[in-house]
Amino acid sequence: MSNPLQDSVAQIDVCTEDFSINFIGKELFFSNQTLRSVQSEFGVAAHRYDDIAHLKSANFSNSATSNVVVVDQIMLDDLLARPDVYTEANGSGCLAFAYRKEDTARSLFENWDRGQFGDIGYLPMNVAPDVWRSILRLLMHEELYLPSFLADCVSNSRPRNKPRVVHEKPAEPKQKLNPIYSRLTRREKQVLHLVSKGQSNKIIALNLGITEHTVKLHMHNVAGKIGVSNRTAAAQFYFEVAHDEAHGQTVE
Fold first, then answer.
1. Which of 118, 214, 233, 239 sits 20 to 30 Å CA-CA off 166?
2. Which residue numbers delimit the HTH luxR-type domain (predicted)?
């Protein structure tokens, strides 16, 4: 039987299949109109599949080299059960999770093994269309969006420092600053801190009184110095390595 979704997509003149955006989920959430809008806005192929198996069995053009795979929140259980299947399907592109409820995004964030399967992006479905397109554009460039409530989740999960116990013996020297974090300039540390809070380049620029271009340059330098490739990994570095130092704290 002919697939009406695929038929409607095929009628749109897309100049290249070198890059495609593939949505995994029901048509109720990724409609034909959404796919046509993505193709028209970004000039890339857009497809929808009911599940990951249909995506894997699809006949892609031999010239296809990269793609974004966006998984709807209804696939959360399967995504966590078979993460390797999903990461394999996104090729050299990136994997993202489309959510309408914060609880589902938080569940994925807490259970996703970033060390084994890499970082995953987040795509909120209940935001304004221009915001949604901006986040999708970031995903196309492998800049993974991390919502602020997930950044707060990481921050709140960190164990609080225990009360200091006064000893008569001389106090031990304070722990030295992390050498990687110490390489950052004052401005780069400020940008990293705001990125960890989930702020966009535009908001960071307004907060610091600089241009968005300057923010991008600082973020590029930060990524190079700390050895990460995207904002999600940079935020993770901040909370794991730099958070205590940025607030003048030492680990007991």
1. 239
2. 176-242
